[in-house]
Amino acid sequence: PLAFLNDPSLLKTDALIDGQWVQGDSRFDVDDPATGLKLADVPNLGAADAERAVRAANAAWPAWRAKTAKQRHAILLKWYELLMAHSEDLARIMTAEQGKPFAEAKGEVGYAASFVEWFAEEAKRANGETLPQFDSTRRLMVLKQPVGVCAAITPWNFPLAMITRKVAPALAAGCPVVIKPAELTPLTALAAAELAVRAGIPAGVLNVITADSANSIAVGKLLCASDVVRHLSFTGSTEVGRILMAQSAPTVKKISLELGGNAPFIVFDDADIDSAVEGAIASKYRNAGQTCVCANRIYVQDGVYEQFVQKFAARVQALTVGNGFEDGVVQGPLIEPAALDKVQRHLDDALAKGGRVVAGGARLEGQFFQPTVVADANADMLCAREETFGPFAPVFRFQTEQQAIDAANDTEFGLASYFYSRDVGRIFRVAEALEYGMVGINAGVIASEHVPFGGVKQSGLGREGSHHGMDDYLELKYLCLGDI
Ligand code: ADP
């Protein structure tokens, strides 16, 4: 699939350190999850290379922070324009290595680029403050300054957007970055880095360290232990997030974490059922269920339960599964065999505990799984507690509003939640009661560059996107000027 790029030079297969493309001593393969075929190989770098990148970033920091906000704005805007101009190629690379349908990949490129555009603009608005003095001989001010070298460890499910959402605010704030992309999807990251170079981001300001899963652990340790790295941003599993947080304790590093979810999707009796069905489809089956904000548990009130299940199952059965490059395909392969195993485990467990398959229910040849719906789900099932991260939707039944709220909140996670209702009182009661960082009300897809994305409880720390998204990359410095 990568033979047909409009601009073949976007297929970068080397890492980027200090403005130099680095081959590395050893390499690892990047495969197409739809076919199992090798696409390319990339450098398998280790701690020493990461150290070199951190030093290069630190050396590049003074000149980068010394640029005016408007100069950084102009470079970021150029990067945004290049990402958009090459969106077809970027989407092609993404579908090839990640598997999502090509139209969805193009959507992600636009979404990813929107963070660069947004933070290019925000660069100019990192305003400080002047404060009322507590004594007439003094004047008080607050400066905002870049934190320093930032590290970003990113996942495979959004190979581009999870990079730009971290890197764009860091760069806008005046920080250099070291990116460690997911080992399953490094090619999208490298293509974006090539465009960053073309946009004029100076050597050392943006570095990309590729590493396989074993070396990613070593690179992660180095980045956490480094006292030059002042901020670590991670998107991925809660399990790895906890490890990185612990590893960052000795250097008291600032951290932003966007971790797992266990999103409830609640449909009340008074909902518009057709709209709820469409919302559930979009929320659950996007990226084959492999997003941290995908509906994981669908709760439907007794009075509309059978109606919802029937309509939902019919829509799910009509979803076309296949290679993301084929026309009409809306669900691609899962990322790796372990992902299929997890879906199967959740399905088997649900069936053993009284679940009823109403759509799909089978693994297909290769790394594909039928979009699946199981009715009569209950709280004892694994899928009630764990994030499935695949195309499997359990539908639970509830009677009262309070039962739905209690069930929704009965988890250590708190990222996205959704509910459907047309009752204005209920909308406020439920929205306020859900212990989640984000609530979609009569909406199944809610992310955008200008809203604060993030979770509470064990779903993470900090918010990405919006005018709050630069806060993590800026230090406040209080100045007290006396003897006026
Ligand atoms: P997922 O469950 O989405 O695969 P992971 O949390 O396993 O997410 O991985 C997300 C990112 O974290 C990837 O870039 C991966 O290489 C990296 N990673 C995984 N384990 C570690 C670790 N122990 N230290 C540093 N990075 C890690």
UniProtKB/TrEMBL annotation:
Transport found in the keyword field: no
Active site: 258
Family matches, as PROSITE patterns: ALDEHYDE_DEHYDR_CYS (PS00070), ALDEHYDE_DEHYDR_GLU (PS00687)
Sequence ranges assigned to domain Aldehyde dehydrogenase in this UniProt record: 21-478
Gene3D superfamilies: Aldehyde Dehydrogenase, Chain A, domain 1 (3.40.605.10), Aldehyde Dehydrogenase, Chain A, domain 2 (3.40.309.10)
Pfam families tied to this protein: Aldedh
Keyword Oxidoreductase among record annotations: yes
Alphabetized UniProt keyword annotations: Oxidoreductase
PANTHER family assigned to the protein according to its UniProt record, in alphabetical order: SUCCINATE-SEMIALDEHYDE DEHYDROGENASE, MITOCHONDRIAL
Family from the record: Belongs to the aldehyde dehydrogenase family.
Designated name of the protein: NAD-dependent succinate-semialdehyde dehydrogenase
